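Hey,
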Amino acid sequence: MTNRSGMKLGDREFPVQNDMLKEGDPAPDFRLTANNWSTKTLADYPGMVKILSIVPSLDTRVCAAQTRRFNEEAAGLGEQVVILTVSADLPYAQRRWCAAEGIDRVFTLSDHKDMNFSDAYGVHVTDLRITQRACFVVDQHNIVRHAEYVYVMGDEVNFEAALRKARELVGE
């Protein structure tokens, strides 16, 4: 694990709880809430490559663009890759946003209940109770193969690096 300083929003820096994951670390298990209020864990995606797209809130410009981009890219990744967008938004809001935006290939999951995912993955912006923008690619054996934390809240993730790693893991 790698230590970190925080996340920047405007001219302010906010603390982010826990250490950052790095490539080669085991992906921490999680309990996230799906749009239908069911609980999802890593075990729900056996043998799949998982792109974990972490956003502060779907109702912001950059987060919406990130989710739309991964939704577009999902069609070309095949059935062996699943894309999960995680935020602390309520499942109601995630479902409403996805319906309004036509998001049908990315699964949105909420960490609103206890922020356990955010704590385990080192993305919990404690003062704001949101998730820091980040992107992880987790292989079929639940090992982190790509980890990116975005320091400035308004910056985008490196889509190409994450997509390249996912394709590499499924042998394309």
